Amino acid sequence: MTSSLQLSQFDYDLPTELIAQTPAASRRESRLLHLDAESALHDRHFTDLPALLRPNDLLVLNNTQVIKARLRGRKDSGGQVEVLVERITGPTSALAHVRASKSPKAGTLLHLADAALTVTVTGRQDELFELEFPERVLDLLDRHGATPLPPYITHEAQSHDDERYQTVYAQAPGAVAAPTAGLHFDQAMLDTLAAQGVQHAFVTLHVGAGTFQPVRVEDLSQHQMHAERFSVPQAVIKQIDDARAGGGRVVAVGTTSVRALESAAAQTDRHHDPLEGDTRLFITPGYRFSYVDALITNFHLPRSTLLMLVSALAGLEPIQRAYAHAVQSRYRFFSYGDAMFIESPL
Asked: CA-CA distance, 176 to 85, in Å (whole number)?
């Protein structure tokens, strides 16, 4: 229940200089703050992860792929416009955020990428605009779009961002933000874990721009989550059952993997393969997890739904203490920053 939870309980002070603007020199070079099952804190490095995982543990990774969702251009009137594709709805159609001095009406033409392509506004769904593209959306974005870095990263996306703001196991195009906990893994790390008996499984949750939207209500019971598309194969549910039967834990890599798994658990009809749909699951302290025993995650924005999720797993006070320690110890925060390994309390 969220009735007694207030937004102000999930605030903390973060010096601007601790917001990582660039990734570490290599994926595995980040620090790792370990919050163990007894709520004790340990300063480690991501290269220590194999020592923290056990044979029969199951890593669950989100294999969504970040698309080059950002386009800039002009309207027929000459006014500047910025498009951020939120969701591809068909081969040539998409829902998008459109920033312009005046909201475009249906029928408006948007000339994007130095007039390399023209898209048509066909309608609106709440804050999102329906767009029709002249060719396959994915192909046009790949040719003309830019990687949509988060709003707190101040530089324009460059070629190294195209690589580093993407996991090494990304397979399913559709996200407009990276599942950033996965950015720390390189193939060598995955191979090392597999060699010591740590299993892995893939789910898909296409991260939307709403992940960066601020919570605007103080009473969290009044907050409505943005919708994100997820898919969990039945084979993954079997892997979870097998891991637990063998004494292993389910270790979600990233809050997006948590939301995919717990959304699948919430489906009443579990006979479909895969378990999929739109999820608005809002996980706050008091939530009872069905599938997740531990979490690898980055540090999250103050007053964000992601901070609420990690507080649900570890407890509000331990997370408050961990974040205060991380600030004092000058960990690097957010998408390109350092990681945490959180074990569910005993």
From this structure: 7
- Residue whose entry in the numeric block shows the structure tokens 């270790």: 251
Q: What is the chain's percent helix, strand, coil content, to nearest 5?
A: 30, 30, 40
Number of other CB atoms surrounding residue 325 within 10 Å: 14
pLDDT digits (tens, 9 = 90+) for 190-228: 999 999 999 999 999 999 988 888 899 999 999 999 899
Domains and CATH numbers, the chain: 7-66+161-343 (3.40.1780.10), 70-144 (2.40.10.240)
pTM assigned to the model: 0.95
Segment (H or E) for 118: strand 117-125
Bridge partners of 297, per DSSP, are 340
Both structure tokens of 94 = 């998409």
Residue in this structure with the two tokens 């804050």, named with its chain if needed: 127
The span from the CA of 251 to the CA of 185, in Å, is 14
What pairs with residue 333 in β-bridges?
19
Q: Among positive and negative, which fits the CA dihedral 218, 338, 190, 169?
A: positive
Tell me the CA end-to-end span of the chain in Å, nearest whole number: 21
